[in-house]
Amino acid sequence: MDTNAAEPPSRRHENHNRLSHHQQPHRDMIPETTILVIAIPIVVVILLLAISVIVALLRRAKSPKPNGNINGNKNCMFIAHSIITFDAGPDMKRGCIYGGSPCTLPSATFKGVQVFTYKELESATGNFTQANLVGKGGYGMVYRGVLRDGTVSAIKLFHREGKQGERAFRSEVDLLSRLQCPYLVDLLGYCADNQYRLLVFEYMANGTLHNHLHSSDGRSQALNWAIRMRIALDSARALEFLHEHTTPSVIHRDFKSTNILLNENFRGKVTDFGLAKFGSDKLNGMISTRVLGTTGYLAPEYASTGKLTTKSDVYSYGVVLLELLTGRVPIDTKRPPGEHVLVSWALPRLTNRAQVVEMVDPSLHGQFSRKDLIQVAAIAAMCVQTEADYRPLMTDVVQSLIPIVHNLSSGSASSSFRFSKRVSPRS
Fold first, then answer.
1. CATH 3.30.200.20 describes domain 77-202
2. pLDDT tens track for 180-202
3. How many CB atoms lie within 10 A of CB 250?
4. By C-alpha distance, which of 150, 132, 152, 262 is closest to 142?
5. Predicted TM-score of the model (pTM)
6. Catalytic positions
């Protein structure tokens, strides 16, 4: 009989357990090593990816915020603040507007803004001769000049007295050296040579919108309906960039037809940032400041309380839009009673289809689309609302004007004939 053939079940179970007990540590050791070999590289890769994402986000947060608006503002940028130092002249001893010692202004190196001497600009303008005088502002005169490299420019000579003129000069250098947008007049350079303060801008061959709309020599006839709508869109895009694509937002504070310049193709660009302010980062974006600006363009809440927001600029834009529609100035005491203030006279007519046609600038000779007129009148009515909250964002204004301008551009070949047949001022 084979003694090994039969073994009690309990004995076999005990042997099996003993065998399993001895073999289990060997089987467990292999998976643990394998898991560690696989897991460690995965964890390292995840950590590296996380660090890369964090670094990328930090770089993006520090970089200038590009303007992604389609059809116009994608070439606009707001450049981060950096500092250069001015030589302190006799008029600088009272201290710097923005602080610093002796006096500091933001660096202009990004845009290639040049620093000129007074003698260079004196030579460029023919010793600031009257023949080269092209404009007058609140803080100085503007002359046509030719720089040494042959560039035709507009050179603004600030008055030598007054702290506000010094603030205006610094504000313009501060902002325009950091703002890059095709709808703003480009700053080419500046001069802070001892007591002299000058700014050098690109030259705008057709002067101000105000002169074309309100001159007595008939030049306003050059601004037909299509040109006016293009200027309205260009200036709306400028404010859209300032309000919604810079951080913090920039409030122009003196937006008016005098500060919209026209190039050789009658494209509009906004200028004069001497009164501009940075908006608040708070929810309503409101700041308190001294009331400055031009009568007729000031938003009611700003004029009465000094509370300034981007909606204050929207109101001013609405006044300019009314100028483009009517050919009238904001305040005209020579007109009959009830017509002295453009906004008060126009507002009730803007929503009346019959009256809105009658209020159109006679120099347009009825050459416009009635449908376009009603749409633009509605935009103007919203912009000049007494309550700031009811006014639109400039992005909304831009998006409303784009299809109007697009349709005018696509039909420009026969637009003059078609518009003259569509409507007359009394229809």
1. yes
2. 899 999 999 999 988 899 999 99
3. 23
4. 132
5. 0.74
6. 254
